[in-house]
């Protein structure tokens, strides 16, 4: 026994320089990786606050097209790109709102606007006319922001129409828009496409499974395209925001460290373009995403279920009670 101990010890002593080098290499590797990601975080989230985004959006083209442009995040993208001197194409379904927002942007930022009433939610909507409408414009930036969801509900309670609308809006709309603007971008060798995949597209969600499924689809679509077009000078970003104060969240929510106002969110997200291809767009959301990534599947589902079950029970009760008007269920919740 003693003999063995001495042997092991002397073997260790003889090999210790090798072990030390291996140890050092491992420490260096992880240290450098850590420094690398810290530097990337700095470039994406800190530096733009002082020196502005890496990408000069105006150089990408004359026009920025934004879907779901009349409310919330979409509207903030429209305003902030106009502030940078871009002309804005606003796409949304309500012509009156479109006119109002377009006039406001023209007056505030002295840029041109073009309004395109289009109902992405309608599965029967025809895209040929839209393609023709957009054809003449030098579109340098596309923000696929429009998206709809429904209140937390077991799938069997969700109306077929709502499912069709959601697929039409969250998936088909974004893919078609991307296809319309790409030829122009490829020709010029520059352009930015931002697809709102939402952090909820990276985590399966009970009672919102169709919604998170559509967003996961958009995330995969976007990442595939990055490989197809990334080498051609086109920036394609999969944006994974968590909660932002818009009309998609309950009215009584107040901004917090983790839940920013749409305007603050968009300012941060524009700073990440050209640095991060797949990002939450907002540093506190990146912290949340990191925390979620540390959970096991079991823990994840426990938390999600707890968070959504109360709402689900209320929604089911409303639905089964013929006396309550439950407008949320005849129509999907929408943000444009
Ligand atoms: C858009 O289409 C949806 C789904 O077909 C429909 O429910 C909604 O009323 C339409 N909205 C407008 C403004 O036309
Ligand atoms: C993206 O989707 C989220 C909900 O998943 C929504 O709150 C937000 O307004 C959308 N737009 C962008 C560009 O983040």
From TrEMBL:
| Stretch list, region Disordered | 317-336
Asked if the keyword NADP belongs to this entry, the reply reads: yes
Q: Which UniProt keywords apply?
A: Membrane, NADP, Oxidoreductase, Transmembrane, Transmembrane helix
Q: Where are the transmembrane segments?
A: 16-35
Family matches, as InterPro entries:
NAD(P)-bd_dom_sf (IPR036291), SDR_fam (IPR002347), VLCFA-Steroid_DH (IPR051019)
Q: Which Pfam families match?
A: adh_short
GO CC, sorted alphabetically, is: endoplasmic reticulum
Stretch forming the signal peptide:
none
Q: Which GO molecular function annotation, any one, does this entry have?
A: oxidoreductase activity
Q: Mark out the compositionally biased spans (Polar residues).
A: 321-336
Family membership noted in the UniProt record: Belongs to the short-chain dehydrogenases/reductases (SDR) family.
Q: What is this protein called?
A: Uncharacterized protein
Q: Which organism does this record belong to?
A: Capitella teleta
Lineage of this protein's species?
A: Eukaryota, Metazoa, Spiralia, Lophotrochozoa, Annelida
């Amino acid at each position: 026994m003693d003999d063995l101990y001495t042997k092991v010890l002397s073997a260790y002593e003889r090999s210790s320089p090798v072990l030390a080098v291996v140890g050092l290499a491992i420490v260096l590797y992880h240290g450098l990786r850590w420094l690398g990601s810290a530097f990337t975080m700095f470039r994406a989230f800190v530096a733009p606050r002082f020196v502005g985004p890496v990408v000069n959006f105006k150089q990408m083209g004359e026009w920025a097209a934004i879907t779901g442009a009349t409310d919330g995040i979409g509207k903030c993208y429209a305003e902030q790109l106009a502030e940078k001197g871009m002309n804005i194409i606003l796409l949304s379904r309500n012509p009156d709102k479109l006119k109002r927002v377009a006039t406001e942007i023209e007056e505030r930022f002295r840029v041109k606007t073009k309004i395109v009433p289009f109902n992405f939610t309608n599965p029967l909507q025809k895209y040929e006319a839209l393609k023709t409408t957009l054809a003449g414009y030098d579109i340098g930036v596309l923000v696929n922001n429009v998206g709809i969801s429904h209140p937390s509900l077991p799938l069997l309670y969700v109306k077929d129409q709502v499912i069709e609308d959601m697929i039409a809006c969250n998936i088909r709309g974004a893919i078609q828009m991307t296809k319309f603007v790409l030829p122009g971008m490829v020709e010029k060798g520059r352009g930015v496409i931002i697809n709102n995949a939402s952090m909820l597209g990276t985590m399966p969600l009970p009672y919102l499974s169709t919604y998170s499924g559509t967003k996961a689809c958009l995330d995969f679509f976007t990442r595939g395209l990055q490989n197809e077009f990334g080498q051609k000078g086109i920036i394609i970003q999969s944006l994974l925001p968590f909660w932002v104060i818009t009309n998609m969240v309950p009215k009584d929510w107040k901004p917090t460290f983790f839940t920013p106002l749409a305007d603050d969110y968009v300012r941060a997200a524009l700073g990440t373009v050209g640095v991060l291809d797949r990002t939450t767009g907002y540093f506190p959301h990146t912290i949340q995403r990191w925390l979620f990534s540390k959970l096991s599947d079991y823990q994840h589902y426990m938390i999600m279920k707890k968070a959504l079950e109360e709402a689900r029970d209320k929604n089911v009760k409303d639905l089964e009670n013929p006396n309550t008007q439950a407008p949320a269920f005849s129509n999907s919740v929408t943000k444009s």
